[in-house]
Amino acid sequence: MPLMGRGRRRVRDLVTAALLIGAVTVTAAALQDWNSRTLEGTAVVTDGDTIRLMGEPVRLRGIDAPELEQLCIGGDGAEHACGRLSSAYLETLIAARPVACIGHDTDRYGRFLGDCRAGAGATATDLNEAMVASGWAVAYGDHERAEARARGDKRGLWAWEFERPADWRRRVAAETGESVPAGGAGAFVRRARALVGWSGHNE
């Protein structure tokens, strides 16, 4: 087969594969949106990106906060308990107000992925965005502009040196031999949505 013909066939195959992946992603996203649900009630903070609502664990979608045991290092070499500080800041944002979370997916640990707001009406707080904007969480498939502003202003975690939470978890898992659950089909859809510029949740 002439080289030109092979090149055209390869391009055609790549385009077909891309269209197929796009169709599957769009269909899955539509089904997820159709299957969305809301949890409302009094929230109990687990850490900087996870709460319990109506007895169910809820992971704030599109963000990632340091684990409770995670430390940050100041310019003077001092250690700061940034995981616990992040968790405390989320409690401050909620301020004992009722929380409502809407979502349609779960993460690899089976936690409900939600976009969460504390309070109601004009005074309600978008918890996902506020945690990243304050610098106490990093973008994880969404809220990249808020992260850039927080990093530029050295807010929260950005005042110190720190490992991104996902990198910290991978390192600790490797050191301890801890296994990490597979992401499943939901993780594939979220990665695909993030790849094409739709907000998602990396895993």
TrEMBL record:
Signal peptide: none annotated. Residues 45-160 form the TNase-like domain. Coiled coil: none annotated. It holds the Pfam family SNase. InterPro entries: SNase_OB-fold_sf, Staphylococal_nuclease_OB-fold. SUPFAM superfamilies: Staphylococcal nuclease. This is Thermonuclease family protein.
